[in-house]
């Protein structure tokens, strides 16, 4: 049943690439990939995934948060969940998230087609909101599956003022059904996700696959800086309360501080809005986000404290008002050592050397870890590029990843998670 022949691996890779291309065409915009949670594009992608699940011989359902589920029945061992997300960032690559869903469908379909009854059932999960690209909250669908959905998420609004609650209703869902999306802890053994690495390590070591040791912790903040609008031509420099100049100074110290740290620590200001955003008006307000990530939870917390102090001092010196709001805080999530070893065995089974590495990117596994042990399999991506249309994983590497997932399932010791 294992898939090890090169021709089989390449055939799997070709099918995976065709599925990725098909999903990659489902976008809100003609010239870049944008597929946001609970939009018509999400609906089309979910329907496409459901059709593939049916074709693979899986039973298909969809929960109150829009997660599409493909079910392969098995013995009475606890269910093995395999999933990832089908939403994207703005101007996205085609592989982030989607390949994990495609790999799950192809691997589960391999067993369905063989008519082999495994000692445990498998659910393939296509989550609709990992990125948080539409609402200022991430992992909305996987937290529901994990049984930790917070109702406070429902009031988050998108750029058009539409709340998550109203978007779910418009998508045809009923809020009263949200609790039913959760698995009972006693019915699930483990969750495994296949994902492109989104970094340069596997390529640097010339390895198609790697085992993830853990998902780095993340702290997100919304920052508002308020000054006074003024005439760009008449207000002397020393009398200005320029919100954008203040924001620029803050962004600069954040970058310098993060770059000077020895730990794996990264800080990003990826989103900044200027008001009134006119070339001859001194900016009166700037809204921006801060994304802090560090493997060590204390280092990340210390940096957050440092930031509040330093940004506050800059605002005070510039006579600006500042408001810093923590919007998300996720501790570093370890991958289960037993699953790491099982995935390492699956990688060596297809000829890899089972490199182990951490994930700087966030994943649905951060939510699923609240339900059950998690494991992740990384796939090499060209140049480590991601969140960028140049994102690319080769059909060969995708074929090897599916083959390794099949090998993992074959040797998965459900009893270890009984
Ligand atoms: O931001 C992340 O790390 C993930 O891609 N949502
Ligand atoms: Mn992403
Ligand atoms: Mn992702």
Helical content stands at 25-40%
Overall outline: globular
Rounded mean pLDDT is: 96
The number of domains is 2
Oligomerization: single chain
Percent in strands = 15-25%
Q: Please compute the radius of gyration using only Cα atoms.
A: 23 Å
Compounds present?
Answer: (2S)-amino(hydroxy)ethanoic acid, manganese (II) ion
Question: Element order, helices and strands?
Answer: HHEEEHEHHEHEEEHEEEEHEEHEHEH
Query: What is the CATH first-level class name of the largest domain?
Result: Alpha Beta
Helix count equals: 11
Report the CATH topology name of the largest domain.
Aminopeptidase
Largest sheet: 9 strands, mixed
Distance between the termini: 24 Å
Low-confidence parts, pLDDT < 50 over ≥5 residues? none
Number of strands: 16
| CATH architecture identity of the largest domain | 3-Layer(aba) Sandwich
What is the assigned CATH homologous superfamily of the largest domain? Answer: Zn peptidases
Which structural class matches the secondary elements?
Answer: alpha+beta
Element layout with pairings:
Blueprint lengths: L5 H19 L15 H16 L3 E4 L5 E5 L4 E9 L12 H17 L5 E8 L12 H6 L18 H7 L17 E9 L4 H4 L4 E7 L1 E10 L3 E2 L11 H18 L4 E4 L3 E4 L5 E2 L2 E10 L2 H21 L3 E10 L2 E2 L2 H13 L5 E5 L5 H4 L5 E6 L15 H17 L7
Parallel strand pairs: 3-4, 3-5, 5-16, 6-15
Antiparallel strand pairs: 1-2, 2-4, 6-14, 6-16, 7-12, 7-13, 8-11, 9-12, 10-12
Helix pairs in contact: 1-3, 1-11, 2-3, 3-11, 7-8, 9-11
The chain binds (2S)-amino(hydroxy)ethanoic acid and manganese (II) ion (MN) (2 copies).
